[in-house]
Amino acid sequence: MKITRLRLHPVAVADPPLRSSYGRHAPYALRTIVELETTDGITGVAETYGGDGPLEALGEVRERVEGRDPFQLSSLWCDMAAEAEAEGDRTQTHLVPGENPLDKPARTFAAIEIACLDIIGKAAGKPVCDLLGGRFRDEVPFSAYLFYKDAGGGGLDDDEREDAWGECLDARSIVGQCRRMIEQYGFREIKLKGGVLEPDREIETIRLLREEFGPDYPLRIDPNCAWTIETSVRVGEALKEELAGGGYLEDPAPGLDGMAQVRHRLLEKGIETPLASNVAVTCFDHVPEAHCKDAAQIVLSDPHYWGGVRNVARLSFLCELLGMGVSMHSNNHLAVSLMAMAHAAAAMPHLTHACDTHYPWQYEADEVVAGGRIPFHNGCVRIPDKPGLGVDLDHDQIARLTQRYHKLPYRQRDDEAEMRKHVDPNWRRVVPRW
Ligand code: GKR
Ligand code: MG
Q1: What CATH number is attached to the domain comprising 119?
Q2: d(CA 113, CA 135)
Q3: Is residue 415 part of a domain?
Q4: Which residue out of 193, 291, 333, 343 is catalytically annotated?
Q5: Does residue 224's CB lie within 6 angstroms of at least one atom of ligand 1?
């Protein structure tokens, strides 16, 4: 079997004005849907980052991909690996999440790898997780991913949407957001995106979440490096009880050394809250250092920039060997990515916490797979009894979302620009801010 054609569909998906230390989400999130056609008439699909950068990077590997056997993934990676040799800082601290140029080869390869595995699964009549050494679970747990946000559901002009969440800029409204999310999806773990309000107000939010939902719902907070070491330790101390029992503190301060200092100072105080990371630890090269320095105890994988679903399964083995926890990070995504994440997580022998997902923030009206949104059962995504990723594209929907993409004035996520436009004309990302 040979790949005959690489097709790329840039899409724009309505996205509410979610806040983080990066700024505010724009009215549309950008994604790219990838299709690989083959001589056998099988088409493989994948979803990845959107905008001009990722689209061009995929276009650049077209010649390497077309004419290739989809089973020969390792040689494809080797051909692309020279670019991956680049030395430097890969952390997402200084760039918009998902746009670090040093992770480009891993991101580009991941999109091709996932589409190839969809092809292989369809050819073999097996789901993708069963190609990754077999599944460890049929249902993959996800967490309620809470965001401080402004009012509105995203979109522009006659496509503008109202949302069920409204403005959520205090503890009480975040509790309401959480309740709605748990009722709708059945999530059993809760994550709050922090780094938006004064740390004391975020402490208050976590405390209220604990008060309302109790210790059966592990809690985590992720300010994306918005805090100094001092503040991180203070928050860790204040939330000692609330983040215990399956919770964690995620990327509180910038850099592996900063994280290590936070960890050591918390341990000195007898606080064992683990630190998780998807900012200081973004690739295999970071894991030994993170482990030696005890800078992160939980690695948040992500098939989209860790080089695909096979690497995520490998990372799970490595973390288990090192005595580290492992779970999964998320950015805005649709159903194709959700299923790639679910298959990867299903095949992880060692998965210590429910995975993150932005999926509840997107809408049925913008879904790109036939049959509409993927359902959650008690906070979990079930691995379907279908070959490959188990999804088929809805090409009418894709055509509509591609048309919308071409009309947009932006081609890259810029959360700072949105803050300047809507909240404060002088806003810029400062790390650490508090
Ligand atoms: O969507 O604003 C966001 C998040 O901050 C996202 O971009 C991060 O990459 O969710 C991510 C995280 O856990 O750091
Ligand atoms: Mg994070």
Answers
A1: 3.30.390.10
A2: 18
A3: no
A4: 193
A5: yes
Q: Choosing from 9, 291, 329, 333, which is the catalytic residue? A: 329
Model confidence, pTM: 0.97
Residue nearest ligand 1's atom 14 by CA: 224
Residues 143, 278 within the same domain:
yes
220 lines ligand 1 (CB under 6 A): no
278 Cβ below 6 A of ligand 1: yes
| Cβ 97 under 6 angstroms from ligand 1 | yes
**95 has a pLDDT exceeding 80:** no
Catalytic: 333? no
Fill in the DSSP letter of residue 180: H
CATH number at residue 140: 3.20.20.120
Nearest CA among 282, 293, 294, 297 for reference residue 243: 297
Clarify whether residues 296 and 380 are in a common domain: yes
Per-residue pLDDT tens for 349-406?
A: 999 999 999 999 999 999 999 999 999 999 999 999 999 999 999 999 999 999 999 9
Tokens matching residue 272? 């064992």
Asked about 269 being catalytic, the answer comes back as no
Residue 250 CA, closest ligand 1 atom number = 13
Q: DSSP code of 132?
A: T
230-280 per-position pLDDT tens digit: 999 999 999 999 999 999 999 999 999 999 999 999 999 999 999 999 999
What is the domain extent for residue 51?
3-127+396-407
Q: Is the CB of 205 under 6 A from ligand 1?
A: no
Q: Judge residue 322's burial from the number of C-beta atoms within 10 Å of its C-beta, 0-12 exposed, 13-18 middle, 19 or more buried.
A: middle
Give first-to-last CA distance, the chain, whole Å: 55
